[in-house]
Amino acid sequence: MGDKEKKQIKRKNKSQPNKKADSEKKTDTRKSKSAPKKQPKKAKQQAKKPVPEVKVIPLGGLGEIGKNMTAIEYNNEVLLIDCGLSFPDDDMFGIDKVIPDFDYLVNSDKKIKGLIITHGHEDHIGAIPYLLQELNIPIYGLKFPLGLIENKLKEHGIRGDFHTIQAGKEFRVGRHFTIEPIRITHSIADSVCYSIKTPAGRVFHTGDFKIDYTPVDGNPIDSSRLAQIGSDGVMLLMADSPNVVREGYTHSEKVVGETLDGIFRRSNKRIIIATFSSNVHRIQKIIDIALQCGRKVAISGRSMINVVDLARELGYIKIPDSKLIDLNKAGNIPDKELVVITTGSQGEPMSALARMASNDHKAVNIKSNDMVILSSTPVPGNELTVANVVNQLVAKGAEVIYSDIAETHVSGHACKEELKLMHSLIRPKYFMPVHGEARHLQTHADLANELGMPRENIFILNNGDQLTLSAKGASKQEKVAEAHGIFVDGLGVGDVGNIVLRDRKLLSESGLIIVVASIDKKAGMIVSGPDIISRGFVYVRENEDLIDAACERAESIIIDCLAKNMKDWNGIKTAVREGLRKYIYGKTERSPIILPIFMEV
Prior knowledge:
Elements: H1 3-15, H2 19-34, H3 41-48, E1 54-60, E2 69-74, E3 77-81, E4 97-99, H4 103-106, E5 112-116, H5 122-125, H6 128-132, E6 138-141, H7 143-155, E7 161-164, E8 171-173, E9 177-183, E10 192-198, E11 201-205, H8 223-232, E12 236-240, H9 253-265, E13 270-274, H10 280-292, E14 296-300, H11 302-314, E15 324-325, E16 338-342, H12 352-357, E17 370-374, H13 383-395, E18 399-401, H14 416-426, E19 430-434, H15 438-450, E20 466-470, E21 473-477, E22 486-489, E23 492-493, H16 498-510, E24 512-520, E25 525-535, H17 544-563, H18 569-588, E26 593-600
Parallel strand pairs: 3-5, 5-6, 6-7, 11-12, 12-19, 13-16, 13-17, 14-15, 14-16, 17-18, 24-26
Antiparallel strand pairs: 1-2, 1-20, 2-3, 4-22, 8-9, 9-10, 10-11, 20-21, 22-23, 24-25
Helix pairs in contact: 7-11, 8-14, 9-10, 17-18
C-alpha cells in the first residue's frame, strides 16, 4: 500500500465517529451534572479575605484630667485625635508640664497620616510643639484652635502643616479615614466632635462638650445631625467624662452673663476680672457688658493679650479700637469707667493677678476702691493657690467676688443628663469613656449600662491599652504602647524621671548634707576634713554640737574603712552615708539626703 492510500485511510478514520469515546463523554457529562460546581477563583479569594480590624489606642487622658491623645490605626495608617498636656501635681517638684509619651508614634512615624483637633484648650493642644519636634505631620482643625497652635509653634521656632476644616463638611485623612466635624458647645470657640468612618465601622468622638441651648455665639449643638449619625449606625462612642458625677445639667454661659451684668451695673469701682484666656466667648461677653456700662477695657497678661489679638483678627472678639486701651495708660481713666481683663484665675504664681496681689505688677496696684472678680472655679489641685491670692486681695481692701459667692463661672463639661442625651442620640454598639479620672470613667460606664448597653460592650481602658474593632466585635488588649507621662522641666524634655523626683521630694522634706574630705588611700589617712555642709537640714550656727558630732562620726567611719584596707571609693561613701543616716535619724528623726564627696591626695 502506497503512502497516498495510507493518508486517505487516516483521514477516513478521523472523520468517522468513535462510539466508545462518545459513550465515555456522555457518562462524564452525567457525572459532572450531579457533582457540586467548583467556586470561581475570585469567589475563593473573597471568602479568604480577612475581616478589617481597627485599633483604638489611648495615649493619654484616661485615669487623669488632661494629656488627651488617642490614636486610631488601620493597616499602615494612623489617625491622631488631639495632643494635650497636663499640669504637674504637687509632688512633681520643679516640673512645668507633663506630655504624652510619643515613643509608639515615633516608631510608627510613616504610618501617621494626620492629627485632628477637637478644640483649643491646653489639655488638647498643649503638647503639639513637642510632638512636631519628633514628627512632621499635618494638623486639621477649625480656625481658632489652629490659630492658637500656630502661636505656640512660633514660640518654639516650628512651622506647622495646617489644614483648615469646616463644621459639617467631610474630609479624608489617608485612604481609610473619612471624617465629619460637627459643631458642639464647650467653653471655647470652634469646638467640634468627630464622626470617623473606618473600615470596621463608624467611630464617634465627642471631644469636650456640654449641651448649651443658649450659647453666646448663637451656634447651638447640631442635635439633628447627631441623631442622623446615630440612625446610620455607630460602632464605638468615646465620650467626655469629667462631669458625669454631677446630676442634672450644666448651666448655660448665659447665666454667667446675667450675673456679671448685675455686678457691673451696681458697681462704681474699678473692676478687675480674671478668667481663662481661651474662653473668648466669655471675654466677648465681659467686653459687651463693659461697653454697655460706659466702661473702657484694658487687657493684662501675656496669654490674654495673645488670645485677644488672635480672636480679634479672626473675628471672634469685636471691640472698637477707641474702647480698648493700653494697660499702662489705664491710670488716666476714672475707676468707674475701667474694666481690666486679666489672667490668673487659677492663682498661678507668675500670672498677672497674682503679681497684682503681691504688688509686683508694673501697671496695676490693688487698692480699696477695686472690685476683683474671679470668673472661674479652681481646677482640682489649685484650690490652695487660688485661696492665697484671694486672701492677699482681701487684705489690700479689695472686694473679691468668686464662684462661691456668685455664679461667675459655669463648667464646659456635660453633666449626667446631657451625657444621657448624647448616648441616646448616638446609640453606639460599643462604648469607651474618655477624659477623666478612674472614678469618672467607672461612673460613665455605669451610666451607659443603666441606659441599656450590655456590660460586655463597655470598655474601660488605661493609657497604652488597645481596643480592637471589627465586624466580629470588640476586644481589649492590654499595654500595646508605653504611655507614661513625660516630664518637661525648663528646656529639658524627659530628662527628669521618678528617681530625680524622689530626690527632690526628699530635699523638700529633710534637706541635704554634704560630707567633704581629702584622703590619702596609699597612706591610709585623712589629709583634711571631714567637713559637713548643710542645706535645708538645720541652721549650722544654731546646731554646732550636732554638726561637730556628725563630723566625728564620719571621721571614725572613714578611718575604720581605711584600716580595713578598703580601696573602693563607692564602698567608703556607702559606709559613710549609711552610718551618718542612722546617727542623724537617731538624733533628729529626719532623713536628709547625704552626699559624700572625697578627693584623693
